[in-house]
Amino acid sequence: GVTTAAVHRAICLAAPAGAGVAADRDILDAIGVDLDRLLDITGTAVVDRPPRREPLFPVGAARARRRCARMTPPLGLDAQAAYEASLRLALARREREHRPEHLALALVALDPGVAWVLAVAGVTSPLLVDLAATFPPPRRTIALRAERLLGRHARHRDIVRRYQRTTGRTATDAPALGALIAG
After folding, report:
1. Residue 175: is it exposed, middle or buried by C-beta count within 10 angstroms (0-12/13-18/19+)?
2. Which of 55, 86, 91, 125 is deepest in the core (most CB within 10 A)?
3. pTM here?
4. CB-count exposure of residue 10 (10 Å: 0-12, 13-18, 19+)
């Protein structure tokens, strides 16, 4: 159980750079690097690295990234990567539609910023296990379940690789994503 006030407090602690930077700050503090001092010198743009060249497929991904950057307010790379991962998770699970729980599963499994917010908010229970039990993949047919199980490793690897390439951050619980796909 987490309260809205606890999440709000965690978000205020992460401001203005965001929860991803706060997670990076905690990691760098452990090795003696003062991220706040570096950000004062260079600005927050250094934290969000530009993504590498977009892959050929899906067609139009680079154009979509540029469109997201022109939005008001701009949609950052972390949000784009999380949404893309949730779409790919829904496809890997052979769901008929993309729903908010796919985004929740992807964020909890992959995003270090969300992991930081949950830790600061005091979430001690394994939230990903609870979410996976609440939203299992469809059970439809034996052939569908077998296909989902056989393709799990490749789809899991692809989701994690694309997320990490886009954000420049390591996924928090990447192995759990395979279990979310297979069920």
Report:
1. exposed
2. 86
3. 0.79
4. buried
